[in-house]
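pls read this protein:
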Amino acid sequence: MSEMIKVGMADLNVCECPNALTTLGLGSCVGIALYDPTTKVSGMVHVMLPDSTKIKKNENIAKFADTGIDALINKMVALGAKRNRLVSKIAGGAQMFAFSSNNDMLRIGERNIEASKLKLKELGIRILAEDTGLNYGRTIEFYSETGQLLIKSVGKEVKII
């Protein structure tokens, strides 16, 4: 029997096959699932903000794309994953409120997506699939056994990427 391991907001966790990871209510936040297809070690981080360098006195590294991804990789490597085999799937980064503005503070979902992609690219981690942007929230489940990311949204078909 496999276990569904919860990842909270601004949180991260790892698991081994056959367990799965889930995070609820991704609005402008981005859920990043990392996966080593050989060992099936999996990890997920729920990032709220793009850049830790903009915030003083922050102890929660999982809150930010730049530090959360690094911390997640370290935990996965400790479980037996190899950095050079990691691949990713990402979801979230919605624009939850309609407005017409170029104010960066309001484009948080978009900035979270950009920061997540940039960090993964810097680390040489390929994004296999994504379900990002638009204007609705998502709950995601990542299955270590298959490498599938299941996405649930209110009023939408369940999507598997």
